[in-house]
């Protein structure tokens, strides 16, 4: 019986050691796996930047094209392509004679051109509806490649939140006095809580003048207005919390908040620059690509296997 106990303890120690070596420090859903080390002679690596997209030329040239360029500069030996995830935007552009691919089209083309390893990096803000669609598309087409990975959205782990807090508070043009309010679309998806978390972290990290709000979810304009009023703020600067600004976005989100807060008695101005023009935000997306190159996302079934022995 004692020998059986020792044998069981030995097996458990082996399993524990295996688990410690397998799972990466960044979280249980990732494990160390360098994509370059898995490549053989003749294999080809590509990065597919997936943007929500924009039908406005200035947004594409000032934000999306610049993001793609920065990725190419960061990974000069890797092929960099782009695709838009918004079908409505792609259809509109194609009607104008501008050819932009959907992610599925881009992946098939990469396969046809001999690419064997691909990292998809979305410029999406939260792990919401868009990320869910991108991950599902990747899952459906993973058989086209030896290795297909999807990088994380802007806000994923706590380190991302802290990096974003630093990035949005540092650019010139962000006022030093008064309240700073980051406004986002918001979503019906459970991931909308990411915006509330960001606002809470601003407060707990001592950045008491920073708030977050959404057009289609919590925190609402009533919630945030009351918060700022209780803090004694009379002046508010709106900071769009979107990767790209388009005219429609300004009307439905920024204009909504500007009009609503003025009705509540606040003096309001707008910092009219999207997240995609912020160098620190672009760098964070590049860091996500580097992470995806070093770590692979495990499925829930992979994780459960560690606890079945």
Automatic annotation (TrEMBL):
Gene3D superfamilies reported for this sequence = 3.40.50.1400
Could you tell me which SUPFAM superfamilies the record lists for this protein?
Chelatase
Active site: residue positions? 185 (proton acceptor)
Known EC number: 4.99.1.3
Alphabetical list of InterPro entries matching this protein:
Anaerobic_Co-chelatase
Q: Which domain of life is it from?
A: Bacteria
Q: List the molecular function annotations (GO) for this entry.
A: metal ion binding; sirohydrochlorin cobaltochelatase activity
Metal-binding among the record's keywords? yes
Q: Which PROSITE patterns match?
A: PROKAR_LIPOPROTEIN
Task: Tell me where the signal peptide lies.
Answer: 1-24
Residues that, per the record, bind Co(2+): 185, 216
> Could you tell me the keywords of this UniProt record?
Cobalt, Lyase, Metal-binding, Signal
Q: Name one Pfam family in it.
A: CbiK
| GO BP, sorted A to Z | anaerobic cobalamin biosynthetic process
Q: What is this protein called?
A: Sirohydrochlorin cobaltochelatase CbiKP
Gene, per the UniProt record? cbiKp_2
